[in-house]
Amino acid sequence: MNWLKRLILLLCMVTALAVVNGCGDNEGPGEKLGKQFDQAVDHAKDKMDELGDQAKDTYDDMKDKAKDAMDN
After folding, report:
1. How open is the CA angle 1-11-9, to the nearest 5 degrees?
2. Which among 46, 66, 69 is positioned nearest to 58, based on CA atoms?
3. DSSP characters for 10-52?
4. How far is the first Cα of the chain from the last one, in angstroms, to the nearest whole number?
5. What is the predicted pLDDT for the residue at 55?
């Protein structure tokens, strides 16, 4: 039974070492490409939000002008 506990402890230590070793800061080409893609998507989202805001503002202006024209 003592050997089983040692085996389990050894397996836990090897697993912990593998996990810690796999969490390095080294960025491969896939990671860099992923970051560039994320930045491009964020940039596109920001531009779409700006366009949406401009469209809403234009619609509100046109609605106000049409209301003013109807009141006169």
Report:
1. 50
2. 66
3. HHHHHHHHHHHHHT-----HHHHHHHHHHHHHHHHHHHHHHHH
4. 96
5. 94
Tokens read off for 45: 């989202």
pLDDT value at position 46?
93
Position 25, amino acid: D
What is the amino acid identity at position 36? Q
DSSP string for residues in 55-66: HHHHHHHHHHHH
Q: How many CB atoms sit inside 10 A of residue 44's CB?
A: 10
Predicted pLDDT at 38: 93
